[in-house]
Write a structure and sequence with these properties.
By secondary structure, the chain is mainly alpha-helical. 76% of the residues lie in helices and 10% in strands. It is built from 5 helices and 6 strands; from the N terminus they run H-E-E-H-H-E-E-E-H-H-E. The chain has helices at residues 2-34, 52-95, 103-154, 176-205, 214-250, and strands at residues 41-43, 46-49, 157-158, 160-165, 168-173, 253-256. It has a 3-stranded antiparallel sheet with strand order 1-2-3. Strand 1 (41-43) and strand 2 form a beta hairpin. Helix 4 (176-205) packs antiparallel against helix 5 (214-250). The radius of gyration is 25 Å and the shape is globular. The termini are far apart.
Length: 258
């Protein structure tokens, strides 16, 4: 079972990620056919600017559509279970001796479960996508702002792009450090600092006595920034290494640049 999991899980993850990436690409093409696309400013294959409004709106829209689909599946899976629970409650109540009056309790439980099931379905299908869209607008907007005003001051993300024909280009490779460092260092490192500040705020609200010590406060902020930087640097570097290995064999990502 352990050996089978080692083989099956990576293969399953590969096809799942491929399906998600393929569908996300289709969503991007459909959205940009109605809205403007993400116009990156390039200088010698270096990304010098990411448009904040278009980037945050399009990426947040893709994330929202995904969460809507996931909410539909979760709601479809949860509501049948609430019906099964209702059936079990009714069966149990009917099995109890008639001398015990449980009809009112059973009716109350049925009403509560039925209402909560419908409410949960509405939250998953409508509420979760709306929250995701609002969060996506803010987080992706901050992502673009951090890149434009912080990352580009130190190191810009590089793409090895080659013209195929007309405005069709292919990303031949991703320089590992130049692709991972701007995102992990300036962008997600900045997010880590923000999370450190939020952690300090939550500790202050709960009355933690360590808050107020300058050294411990700075340590929390620095450690959060470093953890985000190192974690995401490894992730993006690994993505770049895998892409550089696969691109010559199966072809790189093809994009249209205007």
């Amino acid at each position: 079972m352990g050996i089978a999991s080692v083989v099956i899980l990576p293969i399953t993850a590969y096809f799942l990620i491929m399906a998600v990436s393929f569908f996300s690409g289709l969503l991007y093409n459909r959205i940009t056919s109605r809205l403007c696309g993400i116009k990156l400013r390039l200088d010698n294959n270096e990304i010098t600017e990411i448009p904040v409004k278009a980037f945050s709106l399009i990426i947040a829209s893709i994330e929202t559509i995904w969460l809507f689909i996931v909410g539909l599946f979760l709601a479809a899976a949860i509501i049948p279970f609430t019906n099964i629970i209702l059936m079990l409650i009714n069966f149990t109540a009917n099995a109890i001796e008639r001398s015990i009056d449980v009809s009112g309790t059973t009716l109350l439980i049925n009403t509560v479960l039925g209402t909560n099931g419908a409410t949960l379905a509405l939250i998953l299908i409508i509420g979760l996508p709306l929250v995701t869209f609002a969060y996506g607008i803010v987080s992706n907007g901050l992502f673009a702002i951090f890149y434009n005003y912080i990352a580009t001051k130190f190191i810009r993300m590089q793409l090895d792009i080659e013209v195929i024909s007309g405005n069709l280009h292919e990303i031949k490779s991703l320089p590992v450090v130049a692709a991972a460092a701007p995102l992990s260092g300036a962008v997600f490192g900045a997010f880590g600092v923000i999370m450190g500040l939020i952690t300090l705020l939550s500790l202050a609200v709960t009355g933690n006595p360590t808050v107020g010590n300058i050294i411990s406060d700075l340590l929390i902020i620095v450690l959060n920034g470093l953890s985000y930087f190192l974690g995401y640097f490894l992730i993006f570097a690994l993505i770049a290494v895998i892409y550089n290995f696969l691109a010559p064999k199966i072809g790189g990502i093809k994009i249209k640049l205007e």
